Amino acid sequence: MNSIWLKIAGVAVAIVIIIVVAGRFTSDTSAPRPAPQVHSEPPAKTKTFDQMAERDKQFNEAPKPVEEPPAQPAQETAPQPEPAQQPPAQPPAQAAGRPAGVVYPSDIQKPTTLYFAPMSEEDDIQAQQILPYATAGRSMGRLPVMQYGLMNKACLQIEERWPDSWYCFRAKQMMEEITQYQDRYAQMYKITPQRLDISRFMKPRQGTEPRMVEPTRR
């Protein structure tokens, strides 16, 4: 009698083992395979950072000098009429609420010839040392809980020491940009329309040289 029950128990155990093994095999074969990884585009934050880096690079670049046309040799033939000279850049239409005659750096929407005073080697070296403080302060100011004090201090030095140079134009570009972030920066750093005005650079003056200025990268 005991042997019969032992046989029955053994058969039941074997059946249970077969069911368990079959269930595992079925679950393994029916489980969905992981989808292949697809490389997505960089997040928008990375693209924004790249754009900021491009603007930082532009602020450190000197505008390219405008090459004067070569002088034509004198000829014995009848004199040819001189080509009409291109008039100097004209200020854009006056924006509402802006003092008359004031031109902002952002008004330049295409490559434009501006006129800057050349600098001595000593002044150029000193300006090259100060300008990176302005661009670095601009980058720091974009961080949370940071301010643009370092940038403002460097820009003020450039504006006061070399008001007719292209360095001063770059300082005005940076100062205008932060006022576009928040209005309170204009009051905090005393960024008046006159401080941003670039109209003096739009016409040739004695001792100045023409340089091609590109619109600010956005």
Helix and strand arrangement:
Elements: H1 2-30, H2 44-59, E1 64-65, E2 112-116, H3 121-141, H4 149-161, H5 166-181, H6 184-188, H7 193-196, E3 209-213
Antiparallel strand pairs: 1-3, 2-3
Task: Describe what you observe in this structure.
The protein contains 7 helices and 3 strands; from the N terminus they run H-H-E-E-H-H-H-H-H-E. It has a 3-stranded antiparallel β-sheet with strand order 1-3-2, with no helix packed on it. It has helices at 2-30, 44-59, 121-141, 149-161, 166-181, 184-188, 193-196, and strands spanning 64-65, 112-116, 209-213. Helix 3 (121-141) packs antiparallel against helix 4 (149-161), helix 3 (121-141) runs parallel beside helix 5 and helix 4 runs antiparallel to helix 5. It is mainly α. The chain has a domain at 54-63 and 102-218.
Order the strands across the largest sheet as they lie in space. Answer: 1-3-2
- Strand residues, percent: 5-15%
Average pLDDT over all residues: 77
With helices defined by DSSP (H or I, 4 residues minimum), what is the helix count?
Answer: 7
The count of strands amounts to: 3
Elements, N to C (H/E) = HHEEHHHHHE
Compute the CA-based radius of gyration.
35 Å
List keywords for this structure.
218 residues; 6% strand
Could you give a short description of this structure?
By secondary structure, the protein is mostly helical. It contains 7 helices and 3 strands; from the N terminus they run ααββαααααβ.
